[in-house]
Design a protein that fits this description.
- The chain has 3 helices and 8 strands, in the order E-E-E-E-E-H-E-H-E-H-E.
- It is α/β, with parallel strands linked by helices.
- The strands form 2 sheets. It has a 5-stranded mixed sheet, sandwiched between helices.
Length: 125
């Protein structure tokens, strides 16, 4: 049996550190959203502070067409308040919270499988 590597046109997270994330060879130093959906590109997302997040940072993704949103909460695991995620939950979109490094790795795996996933990655300034 011949095995073929998964091919994906989705952006790939190449590397990350506490102060930056590299997507398709471009280094980002601000929080960003990375999407495997063809109609969405990587973009700056939210602020650089967990305490400043709110529902307006999560609600727009409820209409993205994603089946799963990964929330990378920074260097430590911190859960989003339920009211921040209400629009996602109401649309049946799964939400997983993990630290940003774990969210980067998980995004790459899911995107390579062809899943409709958005990673909201907090880079704390």
């Amino acid at each position: 049996m011949k095995l073929q590597p998964d091919k994906s046109n989705a952006p790939t997270i190449n590397a990350y550190d506490r102060a930056w994330i590299e997507v398709n060879g471009v280094r980002h130093t601000q929080s960003l959203a990375v999407s495997s959906l063809p109609n969405l590109s990587s973009s700056t997302w939210a602020t650089g502070h967990f305490e400043a997040l709110g529902s307006s940072d999560f609600s727009p993704w409820a209409q993205s067409g994603a089946e799963l949103v990964l929330f990378g909460s920074g260097q430590t695991l911190r859960f989003a308040k339920p009211q921040w995620l209400q629009d996602l939950i109401m649309r049946g979109i799964g939400v997983e919270t993990m630290d940003t490094a774990a969210a980067c790795r998980t995004y790459n795996i899911l995107a390579s499988e062809g899943r409709k996933v958005v990673a909201l990655l907090l880079i704390e300034s």
